[in-house]
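Q: Sequence in, structure out?
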Amino acid sequence: MSSRPVILAVAAGDESSRGYCLEQVAAAYDVVLLTGVEPTWEQPFIKDHEVVDLFDQDALLAGGRALAARHEVAGAVTWTEWFLVPVARLCEELGLPATPPEVMRACRNKATSRALFAGHEVPSAVSVAVATPAAAAAAAESIGYPVVVKPAAHAASIGVIRVDRPEELPAAYAFAAAGASQSTESGGVLIEEYLDGPEVSVECVTRGGHTIAVAVTRKTVGFPPYFEEVAHSVDASDPLLSTVAPVAAAAIEALGVRDGIQHVELRLVDGVPRLIEVNARIGGDLIGHLVQLATGVDLPRAAADLACGREPDLTPTRKQAAAIRMLYPAVSGTITARHFDKDFAARAPWLRQVVWQREIGEEVLLPPEGDTFTARAGFLIVTAHTAELAQQRAEEAYRRVTLCVEPRRQPVATG
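A: Exactly. Output:
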């Protein structure tokens, strides 16, 4: 029998982008997994599992009860956006430490979040919930163009689009509404003020209502008018952290979050931080991995510790920078060739990973036909002493990528 505590993980995610989370949690805990499919790559990191329909709350609860009956579960955790509220409900039923479901719902619903930010005077964007194209037009006129049209409860920038002129709004509303229809939590659409400035995220750890900002992530967003995230960098010495940390902490407090990991997105408008949203989990795009490469802080382990009511160790052990560059095709279509210069890789010890997420013969779809999950072919990760050098190295490595795509003959219908 193992003497290590048992943690219940819900939805391990994709190996290439979330595998590090499961691996790092399993280094300190015995993991039992609730999953939607039979485990494959997860097997070396788990002690037991149940396969259930994760999108069925009753099935998820039943699977959690079954694992809790076989193991002395100390806590439950997920790093997948869609399951934050269901896992909070599961913890409530099993009597495990957790953020209350209503607080998680406030984090998930952007309209609720905006109202709480306004009530607590946290600088955010003007936002109006709408249900019809006519209401969207009225809200956009009131806010003033450009505006952002987005689903009220989704993730990965799905259905999010910038609108510069009134004539663009009907199509944009249909695009956002199609994205909203994919959410199981809210089908609403928001019209929001466009925050003009560089985008960053603050990676936070909250324990007993006290928030520590561990790192700030500099973001590169592309494919306008959409908001596809194409690159990120984390620098342990970034001076911006002291500027954005108080606003991130205020947003987390406004939502009522007392414990957990938060990925807080904001923009700097004339140098002033303004909130986009608070995600109550480890950031996607391997941001947690970048944080560890740059600072040594283990966010997946911290998430597990907090889920089990333990004090996480947030002591920095490194002081460098790391960057990730996503690999996108030039056009939507079928991958006919993909290659990375191996001679270059052999000469670049700072190149930590080159990962392909799509095979030759598979289709990649850019917005508006596709989204983050269909558009990317892979990613690469580099390290350096500074963020500027890491970003330069990422672009240098990116130029060694060959990605050939046979364009689609017919466009697919959006939505």
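Residues 241-255 form the longest helix (15 residues).
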